[in-house]
Structure formats: structure tokens, C-alpha cells
């Protein structure tokens, strides 16, 4: 399958590119400076562009079978890259007739807010990261209204380490027995799996250890 990853040089994006290549997909890595990936593979193509520029995004999407969005704001607490970039992705997919969209969001968005503890509700998403969190929620609304074959992936806080496969997935808003953490490698593997597993088509799925 021909897959393009937006946000390919981020911590999850990079691992997702590697995971997709390992599964035999042809991958386009889209980022402002894709050379930062420092990856070389016959099935890998690097495209430099800005996710907030509609033409960059639209041109890059042409010819692909699926899109994975792992856009992140880096250290910014006020960036709108997730909603703005995802809206450009949606429009580009609609223009080129690409239907499969897999989009990384965050645990806590919308109904999964109930899964969070006091620290995440009041301190992190309630104060320190409130603008970024609201942008995640807007991003999800745009995806859900897109008319595409979407899956939203809501991971807990990222940790380093290898993929374990031991995380919980698809749990309801009332689930409390959670660490609210998951390795980036596990998230990348889950994003990759969605290309062949349609169990979560048109659903938002939560992930956490």
C-alpha cells in the first residue's frame, strides 16, 4: 500500500514510518525537514512541505492509498498545527479521492475525558496544555465530519521503550484501571495495524497500559 505520513519526523511519526516500511508498505514521509529522519529505504520517499500550506499538502497526497496523521506541536503550548494541518489533509484527500485516514489524537479527548485522573484533567489539559488539548478536540471533530474512512487513535502519555503489545485498546470512558501511559513504539505499531484491520473504522479508539 502507498501511505503518506504527515508529521513524519516527530517521535511517533518517525517510528510509524519505520513500522510501515517493516510491514512492506511504500511510504512517503512529509515534514518541514524530512531529512531529519535519517532513514534510507527503497520504499521510502521524502517530501518537504508545510502542513499548514494547503497546496503542499494536497500535492503530496496525490497517488496514495492511505494517510496517517501524527502531527505534533513540539514544545509549543498554543500551536494549531493539528487542526489546521488535518483540515488541509482532509481537503487534499477529498480532492484526490483518497479515503483511508488514520489520525493520532490523545486520550482525554471528548468522551475519553472520563478516563483521565486529576493530574491530567486539572493540571496538564486543564491548565498547562489547555490550548493544545482543545486543538486536538477540534482536530477530531474535523476528522469525524470529513466523510472519509477514518480512525482516530487516542494514546495515553508517551513513554520510551520497545513495543510491548501489552496495552489496552478500545476501552470505554468508564475504564479506570489505566496507567495513562504507552510507549511510542506501541502507538506506531497500532497506527500501522489500522491499514489492514478495519475493526475501528469510523471509531475513536483509546490506548493505554
Structural account:
This protein is an alpha/beta fold. The chain has one domain: NAD(P)-binding Rossmann-like Domain (Rossmann fold, 3-Layer(aba) Sandwich), CATH 3.40.50.720. 34% of the residues lie in helices and 22% in strands. An 8-stranded mixed β-sheet has the order 3-2-1-4-5-6-10-8, sandwiched between helices. A two-stranded parallel ribbon has the order 7-9. Strand 4 (66-69), helix 3 and strand 5 form a beta-alpha-beta unit. Helix 4 packs across helix 5 (130-144).
Concise summary:
The chain is α/β, with parallel strands linked by helices and 209 residues long. The chain has helices at 11-22, 54-61, 81-96, 118-128, 130-144, 184-193; strands at residues 2-6, 26-31, 44-48, 66-69, 100-104, 149-155, 157-159, 168-169, 181-183, 203-208. An eight-stranded mixed beta sheet has the order 3-2-1-4-5-6-10-8, with helices on both faces.
Trace the largest sheet across and list its strands.
3-2-1-4-5-6-10-8
The description of the largest β-sheet is:
8 strands, mixed
Number of domains: 1
CATH topology: Rossmann fold
CATH class: Alpha Beta
Secondary structure elements and pairings:
Blueprint: E1 2-6, H1 11-22, E2 26-31, E3 44-48, H2 54-61, E4 66-69, H3 81-96, E5 100-104, H4 118-128, H5 130-144, E6 149-155, E7 157-159, E8 168-169, E9 181-183, H6 184-193, E10 203-208
Parallel strand pairs: 1-2, 1-4, 2-3, 4-5, 5-6, 6-10, 7-9
Antiparallel strand pairs: 8-10
Amino acid at each position: 500500500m502507498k501511505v503518506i505520513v504527515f508529521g513524519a519526523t516527530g517521535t511517533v511519526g518517525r517510528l510509524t514510518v519505520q513500522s510501515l516500511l517493516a510491514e512492506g508498505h511504500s511510504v512517503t514521509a512529509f515534514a518541514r525537514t524530512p531529512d531529519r529522519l535519517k532513514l534510507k529505504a527503497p520504499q521510502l520517499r521524502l517530501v518537504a512541505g508545510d502542513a499548514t500550506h494547503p497546496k503542499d499538502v494536497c500535492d503530496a497526497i496525490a497517488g496514495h492509498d492511505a494517510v496517517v496523521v501524527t502531527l505534533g506541536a513540539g514544545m509549543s503550548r498554543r500551536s494549531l498545527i493539528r487542526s489546521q494541518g488535518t483540515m488541509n489533509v482532509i481537503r487534499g484527500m477529498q480532492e484526490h479521492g483518497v479515503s483511508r485516514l488514520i489520525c493520532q489524537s490523545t486520550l482525554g479527548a471528548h468522551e475519553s475525558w472520563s478516563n483521565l485522573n486529576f493530574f491530567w484533567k486539572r493540571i496538564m489539559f486543564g491548565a498547562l496544555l489547555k490550548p493544545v488539548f482543545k486543538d486536538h478536540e477540534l482536530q477530531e471533530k474535523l476528522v469525524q465530519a470529513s466523510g472519509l474512512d477514518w480512525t482516530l487513535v487516542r494514546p495515553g502519555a508517551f513513554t520510551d521503550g520497545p513495543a510491548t503489545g501489552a496495552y489496552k485498546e478500545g476501552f470505554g470512558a468508564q475504564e479506570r484501571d489505566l496507567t495513562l501511559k504507552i510507549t511510542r513504539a506501541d502507538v506506531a505499531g497500532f497506527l500501522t495495524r489500522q491499514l489492514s484491520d478495519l475493526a475501528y473504522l469510523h471509531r475513536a479508539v483509546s490506548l493505554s497500559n
